[in-house]
């Protein structure tokens, strides 16, 4: 079986990383898989850029810029929410690409920001090949947004979009109508969590479609337990401190909930003193003001691209915190658990599929900083830490290992090819 995965990026962002990990897992399992991207970022032999010519790069930039310009115009020329939405009005036609033509099955991932247009996706559906589309956020079931937050307009037809100048038949409504064209019988949707599936089932775009739930995959050889003391000494971390770790591509992305963590740490400070906060990921604009109100000593390591270093940071930490308002899955959660570090997260989204409350981590009541602080305190002081750590490792190994997830997708592919 020949499978081609499609992703805008190769290694930038959680969705791209998940797509590439899945491809690698399938190739390890002796399935033939490749990844087609807009721009290649490594020298991986299994990853192919659509076209590396200067002309194509210029075309790709134009598609990206044209999409952002239209959004910019429709949200009152404000840059604040410019990347919260995608409209797929321009992109690259990959329907004639050799890897697409040779593939038995097409697997779409995150294809926004100028890679595939709605028209381009429609062309793929006309090839007659089975298409699996993994949802890494909510874009597939909404008009234009990647996360709907508290907005439920997507249940009907969108409009009055909170990310635009509000009116009934706005850009979100128009794109919602256009998306209806590519939901044909040869597209099968995969959600990375039961929470994301439930959101898709609420949308009039995707409610009637078959939707499977298959989690993201993790490399258990890379993300595995290490000696905590040895790792701390390697990085000169204080062995006497309780280390609280948070990591994200963009720490000040509002979705990631740093404001909730800050409030929780102030609650924790009332009953726990010997803590330090370790952070990795970018902070756009003024990092000093964002970190100024933290009640504990902190160390911001910036963006870390070396996954082996990230795995060591998980091993060095006593608890990983994921205070996100929404996690469609929770890649950080399974990575930390595989390294033996328990996780505290909110009980509102994808984390519920991964964390078993007070068995391998702690699920706090959503938007309750005090309960989030209680979770951190419980992990650090009240839980049987060794048992908690072993349970976390077991949950990751039994549910998110490469062979397990690759097999789930293989079964899905085979069923679609036989249909």
**Oligomeric state as shown:** single chain
How much strand? 15-25%
The N- to C-terminal Cα distance equals 15 Å
Radius of gyration: 22 Å
Can you walk through the features of this model?
This protein has 14 helices and 13 strands. The two termini are 15 Å apart. Strand 9, helix 9 and strand 10 form a beta-alpha-beta unit. Helix content is 37%, strand content 16%. The model has no long low-confidence stretch (mean pLDDT 92). A seven-stranded parallel sheet has the order 3-2-1-4-5-6-7, sandwiched between helices. Strands 10-9-8-11-12-13 form a six-stranded parallel sheet, sandwiched between helices. It is of the alpha/beta class and 419 residues long. Helix 1 (14-28) crosses helix 14 (402-418), helix 8 crosses helix 12 (369-382) and helix 11 (331-338) packs across helix 13. The protein folds into two domains: 2-217 and 402-418, Glycogen Phosphorylase B (Rossmann fold), CATH 3.40.50.2000; 228-400, Glycogen Phosphorylase B (Rossmann fold), CATH 3.40.50.2000.
Q: Would you spell out the secondary-structure blueprint of this structure?
A:
Blueprint: E1 2-9, H1 14-28, E2 32-39, E3 47-49, H2 54-74, H3 98-102, E4 105-108, H4 118-125, E5 131-135, H5 171-179, E6 187-191, H6 194-202, E7 211-213, H7 228-234, E8 242-250, H8 258-269, E9 275-282, H9 287-291, E10 297-300, H10 307-316, E11 319-322, H11 331-338, E12 343-346, E13 361-364, H12 369-382, H13 385-400, H14 402-418
Helix pairs in contact: 1-14, 7-10, 8-12, 11-13
């Amino acid at each position: 079986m020949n499978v081609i995965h499609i992703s805008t990026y190769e290694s930038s962002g959680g969705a791209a990383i998940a797509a590439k990990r899945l491809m690698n897992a399938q190739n390890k399992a002796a399935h033939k898989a490749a990844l087609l991207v807009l721009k290649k970022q490594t020298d991986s032999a299994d990853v192919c850029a659509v076209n590396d010519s200067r002309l194509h790069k210029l075309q790709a930039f134009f598609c990206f810029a044209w999409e952002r310009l239209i959004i910019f115009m429709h949200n009152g020329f404000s840059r604040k929410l410019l990347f919260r939405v995608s409209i797929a009005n321009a992109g690259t036609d990959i329907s004639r690409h050799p890897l697409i033509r040779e593939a038995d099955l097409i697997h779409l991932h995150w294809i926004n920001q100028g890679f595939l247009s709605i028209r381009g996706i429609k062309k793929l559906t006309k090839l007659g090949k089975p298409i699996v589309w993994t949802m890494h956020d909510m874009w597939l079931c909404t008009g234009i947004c990647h996360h709907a937050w508290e907005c439920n307009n997507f249940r009907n037809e969108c409009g009055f979009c909170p990310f635009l100048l509000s009116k009934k038949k706005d850009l979100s409504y128009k794109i919602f109508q256009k998306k209806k064209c590519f939901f044909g019988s040869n597209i099968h949707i995969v959600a990375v969590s039961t929470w994301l599936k439930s959101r898709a089932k609420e949308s009039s775009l995707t409610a009637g479609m078959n939707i499977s739930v298959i989690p993201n995959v993790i490399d258990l050889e890379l993300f595995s337990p290490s000696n905590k003391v040895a790792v701390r000494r390697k990085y000169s971390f204080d062995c006497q401190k309780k280390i609280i770790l948070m990591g994200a591509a963009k720490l000040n992305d509002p979705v990631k909930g740093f404001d909730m963590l800050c409030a929780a740490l102030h609650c924790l400070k009332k009953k726990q003193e010997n803590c330090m906060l370790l952070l990795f990921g970018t902070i756009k604009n003024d990092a000093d003001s964002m970190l100024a109100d933290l009640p504990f000593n902190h160390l911001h390591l910036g963006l870390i691209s070396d996954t082996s270093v990230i795995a060591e940071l998980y091993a060095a930490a006593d608890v990983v915190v994921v205070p996100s308002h929404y996690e469609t899955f929770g890649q950080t959660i399974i990575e930390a658990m595989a390294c033996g570090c328990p996780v505290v997260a909110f009980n509102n989204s994808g984390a519920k599929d991964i964390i078993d409350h007070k068995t391998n981590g702690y699920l706090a009541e959503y938007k309750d900083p005090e309960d989030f602080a209680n979770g951190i305190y419980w992990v650090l002081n009240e839980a049987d830490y060794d048992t908690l750590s072993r349970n976390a490792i077991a949950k990751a190994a039994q549910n998110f290992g490469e062979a397990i997830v690759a097999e789930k997708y293989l079964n899905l592919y085979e069923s679609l090819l036989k249909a």
